[in-house]
Amino acid sequence: MKDEEQTVRPRRADARRNETTLLEAAAAAFVASGVEAPVRDIAARAGVGTATIYRHFPTRADLIIAVYRHQVEACAEAGPALLADSPSPYEALRRWIDLFVDFLVTKHGLAAALRADQAGFDALHTYFLDSLVPVCTRLLDAAAESGEVHTDLAAVELMRGVGNLCIGAESDPGYDARRLVALLVTGLRNTAA
């Protein structure tokens, strides 16, 4: 009975920092070498031993899912911060789309690795949409309200367009998705403003 009454204690700040460091190192390794990057490479990037990674993430799938969620959360948190700190709502939207492009290039590799677990992949995709569509909507609406963009484009449509322009960027070093996405975002601009 005592176990049922115990509450879960929040993790210590240093444990959260260590996990964040591991997730960022794994994301960087995934961008550089794909999701099959050796754990020893991820450990070296994070400045820890491989046992530390396995203690936090017992399987590669656990690590991949955690990286994906971490990147979604970072992208979601960036939206309001950019809106508060940018000189204009359009500039906030443009900067957020840049972050979104960085995430998408990694996401394609992560998604491919998770295809075998369709239910898990579907749950992560739903998490992605539930977390990021409202952020993009807020940024797009703020830019439209300020008169900087003229669009009846829904945020999910903009995100899908950006996503489609990013396909293949992770495997073709000559393909510059960021340049094409910049053209798309420039096309949203209200030149009369």
UniProtKB/TrEMBL annotation:
Signal peptide stretch: none
Lineage top rank: taxon: Bacteria
Keywords: DNA-binding, Transcription, Transcription regulation
Residues covered by the HTH tetR-type domain: 16-75
SUPFAM superfamilies: Homeodomain-like, Tetracyclin repressor-like, C-terminal domain
DNA-binding region in chain numbering: 38-57
Ranges that cross the membrane: none
Listed name of the protein: TetR/AcrR family transcriptional regulator
Species annotation: Streptomyces sp. 900105755
